[in-house]
Amino acid sequence: MPASAITLAQISDCHLFADKNALHCGVNVYDNLKRVLTELSDNNTLDYLVFTGDLSQDHSEGSYRHFADLVRQANLKVPVYFLPGNHDDETLLNKYLTVPCFHPGKVIEHLRWQVCLLSSKGDTPAGYLSGQSLQQLKQAVNPGKSQLIFMHHHPVAVGYFIDRHGLTNADEFWQLTEKLPSVKAVACGHVHRGLTLLPENSGYPLVVHTCPATSIQFDPDSETVSALAQGPGYRLFTLNEDATVNSRVSYLEFL
């Protein structure tokens, strides 16, 4: 890998409880997150970690404290950026996800790349990019660089029940990206599966990468939340000097 390439890890949808032993669909999500962070701490190629929301399942202050403690205990050697999911309280995110481990900024700047984090948290479980968020993206984009955009909600259909809670103003988002040709790809969480949605299939102009959850992977054949017998996961990105994006997902063993 060229020295000028940037490597990011994405984690998402931890769904922690105040009780470390609590189960989500029969799975200990605290232990799953701890395992993922331990694996990432051994990856010496990482430059950044990006968390794309849904930290808490029970909306408790304790769940935020557990997340921050696990990140610190993992002794990651890279800054951790974050944005909210529909389950999250932004006040608690900002209270517990603080320096030196966490970075509050929403744009990562490099010589040839910008990584932009957008909040898609709305008033319902579905996502919404406010006019302010869209304007901030437009103003942040440097056309002399390439961009990778992160958000929580998915801006394209994935074909199962979570589409009921996707990005409600996706068309507005895509209309903006058409005016920003330097944007190369979009990454999101929320769907609890690691998918790569190509323009020729989605009908939208950019590749959309979704992130497996550290908690549970959704069963796409179910009409509601149900877990597959699949371990926790994360996604890796390499942002290359030639403006291309390489990405892959990794899953840990199901316990």
From TrEMBL:
InterPro entries: Calcineurin-like_PHP (IPR004843), CNP_phosphodiesterase-III (IPR050884), Metallo-depent_PP-like (IPR029052). Pfam families: Metallophos. It comes from the Bacteria. Residues 7-193 form the Calcineurin-like phosphoesterase domain. The keyword Cytoplasm does not apply. Keywords: Hydrolase, Iron, Metal-binding. Belongs to the cyclic nucleotide phosphodiesterase class-III family. PANTHER family: CYCLIC NUCLEOTIDE PHOSPHODIESTERASE CBUA0032-RELATED, PHOSPHOHYDROLASE. This is Metallophosphoesterase. It comes from Thalassomonas haliotis. The lineage of its organism: Bacteria, Pseudomonadati, Pseudomonadota, Gammaproteobacteria, Alteromonadales.
